[in-house]
Amino acid sequence: MRTGIALLLAAGLVGSLVACSTPADDSSQSTPGSSASCDVTKPGDASDSVSVEGDYGKAPTVEFDTPITTTATERTVVIEGDGPMVETNGDANVHFTLYNGSSGEELTTTGWADGATQSITVDESAFLVGLVKTLECTTVGSRVVGVIPPTDLWGETGSPDLGVDPADSVVFVADLIDIATGTFVPQKFEDMKGAPEVEFDADGAPTITIPDTAPPATSELGIITEGDGEVVGEDANVVVNYTGVNWTTGKVFDSSWERGEPSPFNTSGVVNGFGKAIEGQKVGTTLIVIISPIDGYGAAGNGGDIGGTDTIVFVVNIVSLGTAE
Fold first, then answer.
1. The predicted structure's pLDDT at residue 210
2. Domains of the chain (ranges, CATH numbers)
3. Are 103 and 68 in contact (CB under 8 A)?
4. Which of 88, 98, 131, 210 is most buried when burial is the number of CB atoms within 10 A of its CB?
């Protein structure tokens, strides 16, 4: 990840400066496919004036007259996708480039290469308000342009590290590649198509064999055997046995079975797909969960055995409810 991106998206630094800024009541409207709870930021003269050419998912050619200014964040949809929509508190996986609205200079970018996307939580307390307003209610497959004023950026401080003065607006061009839904539709393991093979030894430890095919595009959950214990709630403390395999390499990257004892944790303290797969299941259940990058470690990977484009697979047995360490 480039230094500029890390500075731009640092949650504690950026979000706290502008958390009090909210869109006016007349700044949102409904669009086809949006839910009643999703407030869409309107386009305006500034965002409509930005010329963006090129194919979705590829680096665009962006042109606009400088200085470009606005008093409220404006959002224009250049390409409208037909995928699922990211709503408030959802995680958006995007390609983007950010420009200084006064000079027209590029400030930072994901690079638009495969696997170079950035995960942004659509939450004004965590990320720049203007980025959130631009991405909120966007559907996967879309390209959007946001023209964002200082009040929805870093406020009176600007961002010296990125070269943004306090009075500068910015232009944000982003393609929404995918989103983390945070939900699963459980199915029987034997009904899953193209899933890994799972064999268990005498002690119940699994061997996971990855098929010679591409992973599914979205996360999947299969019930191998269903337990009869208590149901795991949200943000629950649990004790589980698990083995995790990287779909790309077929190698085990973590296993409590190999360590010889189950692991306690809170379902909100692990990667999104792992925790959400366990919530709603009964103690005693053994399940397989296939986790796409957006529901796992995101575009950055885990810094070790899992890259930003790697799908991961877990076989999990829920041993008990308990106290997470």
1. 97
2. 3-180 (3.10.50.40), 187-321 (3.10.50.40)
3. no
4. 131
